[in-house]
């Protein structure tokens, strides 16, 4: 049996040990059967990988920045070496793997880059139609939360503009080696039908960020640099940013652009 991979703190590694949770995570992916390609990010010792490999509907590729993990998996007889990439997911051009083909992303993500992984998926939103992953619980709640929630924010809106997001289940600390100091959660992001937002997308992103950088202020105060006197008089701008839906931010962007 191959020597165990050493969890590295600098890589944010916490290896999942509960097979039932691994199975449930993999089964939550591609339930509509529309995808073929799946990229696992951060395989560790292959707990999720084994369940993905058993899925006849999925063609698996694994990427891990941890050379020790890749070398560990290369010694296993249930996975081919050409399925394994020793590299940095955040740095790689995913078109070198998939060309223009659609794909999904699956993984027990390192917590220190989990949000960056989602924003990378957002960059490839025309190809990446699904993400299922393990996150720190607080991060998962923030991503999946709706307007009116205290944790609703920039990440929630920018991702929900293009993905439907489901919080699937909570995972406790004791099913990892080493155990993290926080609870975890599995969420699923499914690409919605929005090809392009019906507004200036660059301005939309700017307005969302400016609004939440001063989230205790009303929109009238946080966005005063953008507003004409007519816009300042509107009731919408009496609200705080966490009270606005994605659709309202789109409407607000169009108002500001028109003004």
Task: Kindly describe this structure.
With 259 residues, this protein is α/β, with parallel strands linked by helices. It has two domains: 9-191, Rossmann fold (3-Layer(aba) Sandwich), CATH 3.40.50.150; 201-258, Helicase, Ruva Protein, domain 3. The protein is 34% helix and 19% strand. The chain has eleven helices and nine strands. The strands form two sheets. The protein has a seven-stranded mixed sheet with strand order 4-3-2-5-6-9-7, with helices on both faces. It has a two-stranded antiparallel sheet with strand order 1-8. Helix 1 packs across helix 2 and helix 8 (201-213) crosses helix 11 (246-258). The longest helix has 13 residues, at 201-213. The protein is elongated and about 70 Å long. The N and C termini lie far apart (67 Å).
> How many domains make up the 3D coordinates?
2
Order of helices and strands: EHEHEHEHEHEHHEEEHHHH
Low-confidence stretches: none
Assembly type: single chain
Spatially, the strands of the biggest sheet line up as 4-3-2-5-6-9-7
CATH superfamily of the largest domain: Vaccinia Virus protein VP39
What does the radius of gyration come to?
A: 20 Å
Number of helices, where a helix is a run of at least 4 consecutive DSSP H or I residues: 11
- Helix fraction? 25-40%
CATH architecture of the largest domain: 3-Layer(aba) Sandwich
Query: What would the average pLDDT be, to the nearest integer?
Result: 95
Sketch the major β-sheet.
7 strands, mixed
- Span of the ends, CA to CA: 67 Å
Broad CATH class of the largest domain: Alpha Beta
Quickly give the structural class: alpha/beta
* Proportion of residues in β-strands: 15-25%
CATH names the topology of the largest domain as Rossmann fold
* Beta strands, count: 9
Categorize the overall geometry.
elongated
């Amino acid at each position: 049996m191959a020597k165990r991979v050493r969890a590295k703190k600098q890589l944010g590694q916490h290896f999942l040990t509960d097979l039932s949770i691994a199975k449930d995570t993999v089964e939550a992916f591609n339930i509509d059967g529309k995808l073929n390609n799946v990229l696992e990010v951060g395989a560790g010792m292959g707990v999720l990988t084994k369940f993905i490999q058993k899925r006849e509907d999925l063609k698996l590729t694994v990427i891990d920045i941890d050379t020790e993990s890749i070398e560990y998996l290369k010694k296993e007889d249930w996975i081919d070496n050409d399925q394994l990439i020793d590299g940095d997911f955040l740095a790689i051009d995913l078109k070198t793997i998939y060309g223009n083909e659609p794909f999904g992303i699956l993984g027990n993500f390192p917590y220190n880059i989990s949000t960056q992984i989602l924003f990378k998926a957002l960059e490839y939103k025309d190809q990446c139609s699904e993400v299922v992953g393990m996150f720190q619980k607080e991060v998962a709640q923030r991503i999946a939360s709706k307007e009116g929630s205290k944790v609703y924010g920039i990440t929630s809106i920018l991702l929900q503009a293009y993905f439907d997001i489901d919080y699937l289940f909570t995972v406790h600390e004791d099913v990892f080696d080493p155990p993290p100091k926080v609870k975890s959660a599995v969420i699923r992001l499914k690409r919605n039908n929005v090809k392009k937002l019906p507004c200036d997308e660059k301005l939309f992103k700017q307005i969302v960020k400016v609004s939440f950088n001063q989230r205790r202020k009303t929109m009238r105060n946080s966005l005063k640099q953008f507003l004409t006197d007519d816009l300042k008089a509107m009731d919408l701008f009496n609200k705080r940013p966490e009270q606005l839906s994605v659709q309202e931010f789109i409407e607000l962007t169009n108002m500001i652009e028109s003004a």
